[in-house]
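Example 335.
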Amino acid sequence: MNSKIQNILNEIEKFEADSKEALENFRVKLLSKKGEISLLFEDFKTVSPGLKKEVGQKLNELKNKAQEKINSLKEKFEKTTDSGTPELDLTLPGEELRAGSRHPISIVRKQIISIFSRIGFTLADGPEIEDDWHNFTALNFPEDHPARDMQDTFFISDELALRTHTSSVQVRVMENNKPPMRILAPGRVYRNEAISARSHCFFHQVEGFYIDTNVSFADLKQTLLYFAREFFGEDTKIRLRPSYFPFTEPSAEMDISCNICKGKGCTVCKQSGWVEILGCGMVDPAVLDNCKIDSRKYRGFAFGMGIERIAMLSYRIKDLRLFSENDVRFLNQFK
Ligand code: DAH
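Predicted structure in complex with 3,4-dihydroxyphenylalanine:
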């Protein structure tokens, strides 16, 4: 008796039904009136009284096992179609696909490119690992200029460093092309600075320059006014303050009327009504000559701005570090 029970138990465990019919045949074989388990219950009457308790328990277990197995296989068939594939329920809600969002730096870069492309500027880029010539020397930096110091620049070797500004692209483009040229060069730059809310060891710039036979400071001013109005709004004012860069002469820094308080004075503009957004100037003739462009024939203007700076003003972001922390709570706001 015991071995018969064990055999049927093994059979139940191994059994796999490939159709409803096979399952029904299995049920009949074991549990119908003349089925193997039912017959065992008949035989049970002949078991000696001393063993009745033990064998009876086993028999009941066997019957339950058989019933459980049949029920679970039945469920499987009820959930599938005749062809055996799971039924497709078109009324179920779809799986949610979460859309990402663009990084604010990408958004602002695109906006800047779009504004300048409307007045004929095209894109250029250059390497982030740059040599001394393109990052400094060709741009008229004196041999002992502090920017060449280890304190400000990440040097890779005696000759190579991570570029400290996108002005290096000016040199590369001017060396390899003939005027007229109207170029915009966005890219990442690196400086050896302590990371804080106001400074970082890497950030993004957009460089712009225009070289032609008759370019004047008035062209520079008008181009930048156009940009400021397109980006920050029709009523934005600009002002140019004299400044110094080795590669431009004259040089200036440009402020816009504070886009947050509209010039009335607030914490962002430190009550002055103005915020600085870029450096600019007329390309120094020495730079043109360094790039084999005849400085007696050609002139040009150039400007460079930090994308983070523009994005911070545009979105009122107070901490530079947010741009590189990849915190989705920050990034999700730019949908
Ligand atoms: N390269 C400068 C910087 O990183 C920005 C700059 C200033 C670029 C004046 C220019 C320019 O093209 O004319 O601070």
